[in-house]
Amino acid sequence: MTSMTRASLVVFIATVTFMSWPPAVDACNCRVDCVMGTWGEWSACSCLGKRYRERVITTQAACGGTACGALTEWDNTCVAVCPPPPSPPPPPLQPLPPPPAELPSPPAELPPPPAEFPPPPVEPSPPPIPPSKKSMPSQSSGDVSHSSWAPVGAALATSLSLLAALFPG
Fold first, then answer.
1. Is the residue at 39 inside a domain?
2. Domain range holding 55?
């Protein structure tokens, strides 16, 4: 057998083999509809009153089956509390007007106080201390009630009563 005959024989056998095989089975002889998963939870409501939810495809449509629907569903009826829009910026500052050429003079005399606040009563001053009693009490005497300090104590008591009248409470 020559090489040409051998090659012809291989081609002939291959042709007969491929021609005798049954036709290929059509993969689309069975219709497959799309199958989708369940919807997920709704998203938070946006300030525009919109929310959405999603789902996934579990089986793709094939061989003329029903196509898949939307993967996202929108709802425009939700109500959200949204922050107010930002306020516009304040207007630019304007320069102050110039001061008057001459400022007014202060009043020459203050007005009298209102009548509802009369001046506090003035108590008479204690009598002057005679020169003989102005000396300090002796240290040997322990009793100071009859000493020369008694008028000072009376003046102090008078001053305290005046302060109490001026500043009650």
1. yes
2. 30-81
Cα 10 from Cα 68, distance rounded (Å) = 50
The CATH number that applies at residue 44 is 2.20.100
Contacts of 45 (CB under 8 A, 6+ apart): 51, 78, 79, 80
**To 10 degrees, the CA torsion angle through 6, 8, 13, 16?**
-170
Predicted pLDDT at 83: 81
What span, in angstroms and rounded, lies between the C-alpha atoms of 47 and 95?
41
Does some domain include residue 35?
A: yes
* Residue tagged 């709704």 (tokens): 42
Place of tokens 């997920």: 40
In a domain, 44, yes or no: yes
Q: Which residues contact 43 (CB under 8 A, 6 or more apart)?
A: 51, 52, 53
Query: Each residue of 51-78: pLDDT tens digit?
Result: 999 999 999 999 999 999 999 999 998 8
